[in-house]
Design brief:
By secondary structure, the chain is of the alpha/beta class. Helix content is about 35%, strand content about 20%. The strands form four sheets. It has a seven-stranded mixed beta sheet with strand order 4-12-11-10-7-5-6, with helices on both faces. The chain is globular and about 60 Å long. Bound molecules: pyridoxal-5'-phosphate.
């Protein structure tokens, strides 16, 4: 099938929800992806922060294929080894107590929200404390509930009625969080420490400190959405480690599965017993193939890799700050946002034409490359990007 056929079939049969770039990708190796005409690209997008070890990483492929050829799926009515091994690994690496597995970021957030509400229900005996505070400009997913959680008006039309019980506070002014907490009906505050889809906007340490203080004083849970920031992306296993506090709940997905669908909701001490039998579930959650792949990823997100993530992130910042056409560079580790004079969409299109895959987030160019991208690949891609941004 050639590109014209694929595009025609996509137009005819695939729901028209995506604006796709004019390229068909067929294979890859690490941070190098090849299109249907054999042209090679340097990947600074990693399938939106998913392929943390790049394409067709041999260790991950071996783990996945070994498991898929033994048992590809079994329901959660029975035990499987990869699921429990991954849960243990996640808990040991983080200090969390229990894990619920789903298949995506939105599902991880659904579980986080359900856990917080159930915690409050158990405590107060009713739904009087079911409200969750989230931040303006946040993004938490595409289900009806996680859209309601998302703090962007653009996502609050067309699909109503939305799930009730979400209020949105400014990501700059902790007093707004305090005022909402003072209403007395909130069970949790939910944060992305770097607002990813919102334009790679990190929260400040002072703001986060204040929000954590308010949550603790008002006996609210702290949920951190690490769907995008997690699994080594920002230079630590999870971004909250760099903000000096321990959340009660962390949701994560994207990079965790290394390219297969997998989401996880990590539950701390205060909520480890909140969900009981029948309170939540997922047919595919904890799928043995996804979990086997994830173990092979998590085991290799070690100090050396994380040091490399921080170093490469600093390199990108140094190379782009002050470059022609660059207004600002934000982010942490290998999660970088670039505000450019040219519209971000134009930059992404031009970069693709020159063999570099980049993403956009709001008005910014967004870079979330595989964590294992080589220095040489990164230098080459950044040079091309600089050229394109400066045009
Ligand atoms: C912070 C954050 N939360 C949740 C989601 C939703 O994840 P998914 O698309 O896997 O449902 C995303 C996706 O971009 C995200 O960046």
């Amino acid at each position: 099938m050639d590109k014209t056929d694929i595009k025609a079939l996509d137009r005819e049969y695939v729901a028209n929800t995506y604006g796709r770039a004019d390229v068909v990708f067929v294979e890859g190796k690490g941070a190098e992806i090849t299109d249907d005409e054999g042209r090679k690209y340097i990947d600074l997008g990693a399938g939106i922060a998913v392929n943390v070890f790049g394409a067709a990483d041999p260790v991950w492929v071996a783990a996945v294929t070994a498991q898929v050829s033994k048992l590809q799926h079994m329901s959660n009515l029975y035990y499987t080894e990869p699921c429990v091994k991954l849960a243990k690994l996640l808990c040991e690496r983080t200090g969390f107590k229990k894990v619920f597995f789903g298949n995506s970021g939105a599902e991880a957030n659904e579980c986080a929200i359900k856990t917080a509400r159930k915690w409050a229900f158990d405590k107060y005996g009713d739904e009087s404390h079911s409200t969750v505070i989230t931040l303006k400009n946040s993004f938490h997913g595409r289900t009806v509930t996680t859209l309601a959680a998302t703090g962007q008006d653009a996502f609050h039309t067309k699909f109503g009625p939305f799930t009730k019980g979400f209020v949105h506070a400014s990501a700059q002014d902790a007093e707004e969080v305090r005022a909402l907490a003072d209403r007395g009906d909130c069970c949790a505050v939910m944060l992305e420490l770097i607002q990813g889809e919102g334009g790679v906007v990190p929260l400040t340490r002072e703001y986060v400190d204040e929000v954590v203080k308010i949550a603790r004083e008002r006996d609210m849970l702290i949920i951190v959405d690490e769907v995008q920031t997690g699994n080594g992306r920002t230079g630590t296993l999870y971004a909250y480690e760099q903000f000096g506090f321990m959340p009660d709940i962390v949701s994560t997905a994207k990079g965790l599965g290394g390219g297969l669908p997998l989401g996880a909701c990590l539950m701390g001490e205060r909520v480890e017993h909140t969900l009981g039998r029948g309170d939540h579930g997922s047919t595919f959650g904890g799928n043995p193939v996804s979990c086997a792949g994830a173990i092979s990823i998590l085991e290799r997100i070690d100090d050396k890799l994380l040091e490399g993530v921080r170093r490469k992130g600093e390199y990108i910042k140094r190379a782009l700050e002050g470059a022609k056409g660059v207004k600002s560079v934000t982010g942490m580790g290998l999660m970088v946002g670039i505000l450019t004079d040219r519209p971000a969409g134009e930059v992404a299109k031009a970069a693709l034409e020159k063999g570099v895959i980049v993403l956009t987030a709001h008005e910014k160019v967004r870079l979330v490359p595989p964590l294992t991208i080589t220095d040489e690949q990164l230098e080459k891609a950044v040079e091309i990007l600089k050229e394109v941004i400066g045009e």
